[in-house]
Amino acid sequence: MALAIRMARGGSKKRPYYRIVVADSRAPRDGRFIEKIGTHNPMLAKDDADRIKIDVERAKYWLGEGAQPSDRVGGFLAAAGLMEKKVKNNPNKGKPGKKALQRIEEQKEKAEAKVAAAEEAKAAEAAAAEEAKAAAEAAAAAPAEETAAEAPAAEEAPAEDAAAEEAPAEDAAAEGDKAE
Predict the structure, then answer these.
(1) Which residues of 16-27 are buried (b: 16+ CB within 10 A; e: fewer)?
(2) pLDDT (tens digit per residue) in 107-136
(3) Rounded CA gap, 59 and 164, in Å?
(4) Mean pLDDT value of segment 26-55
(5) 169 within domain boundaries
(6) What's the rounded Cα separation, in Å, for the pair 137 and 131?
């Protein structure tokens, strides 16, 4: 028979009170026990002397018989000086479980999708802005090209007229020179 020194819960709802008992490890938590060796009242202040009461002589006896204390009772016994507190190392305690890892992965995928959508929207905005800028430049260049195309024709005609007007003057000047 494996013995355990553990707490059995008593008290009413939301008002816990624990008995520190020696019991068979297979017995129910609040069920049959061999001996009550103390009490624990968590409703009292931490510095209150009545918060934890342990019969030290009986606890020593049962520890000598091979009874294994629970973690909480082991802390109480260590505080009473009956045993050394065991420092446990459980490196997996802080690691998330399978479901939590799945949720984390889903959140990462959603975040990446959101970032990709934002980048795509930015790229679409930039492309739209480039198209609008190109259209504005084309619109600005089109009237300038039309006026440039019309202006030389207009300028050429007066130049030809001027040349035609100058030519008779030169002819007249040439004729005037001959007359002299």
Answers:
(1) eebbbbbbeeeb
(2) 999 999 999 999 999 888 888 888 888 888
(3) 133
(4) 91
(5) no
(6) 10
pTM for the whole thing? 0.50
* Residue 101, domain member (yes or no): no
Q: How many domains does the chain have?
A: 1
Provide the domain limits for residue 69. Answer: 3-79
Domain membership of residue 57 (yes or no) is yes
Express each pLDDT in 153-176 by its tens digit. Answer: 544 555 555 555 555 555 555 555
Rounded CA separation 169/180 (Å): 16
Tally of residues, the chain = 180
> How many C-beta atoms lie closer than 10 Å to residue 140's C-beta?
10
| DSSP per position, 8-36 | EEEEETTEEEEEEEEEETTS-TTS--SEE
3-state SS class at 172? helix
The CATH number covering residue 51 comes to: 3.30.1320.10
